[in-house]
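To whoever is covering the structure queue this week,

Two jobs came back overnight. Logging them here so there's a record in the thread.

Job A:
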Amino acid sequence: MKGWIFGACCVMVSASLSGQSGQDTSKATDKLRSSSDKAQDVFEKVVRAPGASEQVPVEVMPEYPGGTTALYQFVAKETKYPEEAREQGITGKVLVRFIVGKDGVVDSVTVMRGAHPLLDTEAMRVVWLMGKWTPGTMNGKPVRVQYVLPINFDMPAQDLEKIRRKAARKAAKERR
């Protein structure tokens, strides 16, 4: 709505300025003031309705049952490190984007930034397993909200070192 009003103001101002060629600057200035005053009146009536300064949109983000701590506990419990990825020493962070619907159901799960296809698939599987959330609201009404969840796939440094040594030995054997 504000964009529309701004656009209307720009159109009125540009219409006033376009008729300026060859006219007295004073007339053009008066025309511009008049258009500006009209635009301000429209703005006051539409955007600044009585009591509008007191109305602040209340936004509440969706929440997993039990809060953020419960969300990360669920992710940690349900995530199964893909065996093939573990054997290859693949680690990384996957950013999973999804929508929490008006009814609190998870929908439209996609990988925003992946680490490896094996890890990406597992991260999406875990997000699809999530139950119903408390939906986000705006001005007291439930709304669809996009959410991004980072899921880390990490393994101890000792395990990674063992995997790297094993891969180096295998590569050395193949070169012989």
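Job B:
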Amino acid sequence: MQIDPQNPMPLYYQLYSILKTSIARGELAPGDALPAERKLADIHHVSRITVVKAIDLLEKDTLVERQQGRGTFVLAKHAQPTRTPTLGFLAGGLTHPYHHSIQMGIAKVASQARVNLNVLAHYHTSHRTSTYELDELSSRIDGLIVYPKGEGDASFYAQLSQRGLPLVMVDRYLTGINADIVTFDDKLTSYHLTEILLQRGHTRVAFVNYSEPDVSSSRNRLQGFANALHNRDLVVNEDNVWLDLYADYLPLEQSRSQTHLTQRLLDKLEETRVTALVAINHDVAARLAYDLMLISSERAHLAANGDGDSDYNLRMEVTSFGHKHPADYSPFHIAIAMQPGEALGKRAAETLLARLQAPDKSPHHERLPIEILHHGGHDLQSRFFSPFNSDISPTTSPTSSSPKSAQRDSFERSDS
């Protein structure tokens, strides 16, 4: 690390940070002598007064000891004062319930471990982030849990990692970054959600993505969907991978006026003749339920006026990932893979605390299992029809055709 003349941080503090980092990394071990003050000044192109002020700060932190006539020496670690570690959590935004539940899990572990937690909800992660901003963030926390928004964040996190800051990526991850990773088993779970629909006789199943098709969780869920179809010799193409359906979607509470989304879904259904959908998350599943009910209501209205098919019911089934149960009024949802954000946050915090205790261990990727809940209101033995009255041949139902009643809402438990 070098002193940056463009950095607004005072030169003595920059030198202090450089020496402190060298001590923390073991480049200057206990008992080692620091270079002479004049040599440090020459190396870093600063005045001797600047060097003296930097060493003063190191001495104040009891990292070094000046010995008259001998020089300045690094103190043993046990001589350093104990300090309460501070964990950081950086998310794209904490207004979403899922992000908030992850934060609650992190906070509970931090409280139990008696460490501090610094929530950095809106920190700038541009590749143009200045050295000053990176130094400032690194100085505030001892380790960081991140919910990366996309590959555009990679440079930012790579620079933090290069500064020796321990990182844990939660829910999704970026490649090429030295970090621990804690996610759900997205690929396997998506396979099971798709297989549920295939076992129920559907052969035209579509995967409904959101506005982030390139993040790791989206890629892995799509791969699980594709694996399930490939195992049954079914084709995966643009007719059943819908990336653009809800590309401009807002959360349902804000988007009820987006009537073009309902029409877009109807156009997709008529074009592809899809009979079942796998929704990538709760927000997409909620919008699908809303749009499908609007379409079903319109079909009923036309039938009542004699303008539509007498068999007007929209027969569609949906499985999805989600952080909470779908509304009970949705007749289309048959299974949901529950993502307990709090459990994910807890495990991420535990992983970061373990990393602080063993900084030299190799990075680890832990995939948490997801529980799939089946909606109790659907008969797994029933025959299916397409939304447009094209019959689907019935198949043998899954082995869980006689499920136990659920305690939560109207869902049944099933191992994923």
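Note for Job B: Residues 282-304 form the longest helix (23 residues).

Please reply-all if you pick these up so we don't duplicate work.
Q.
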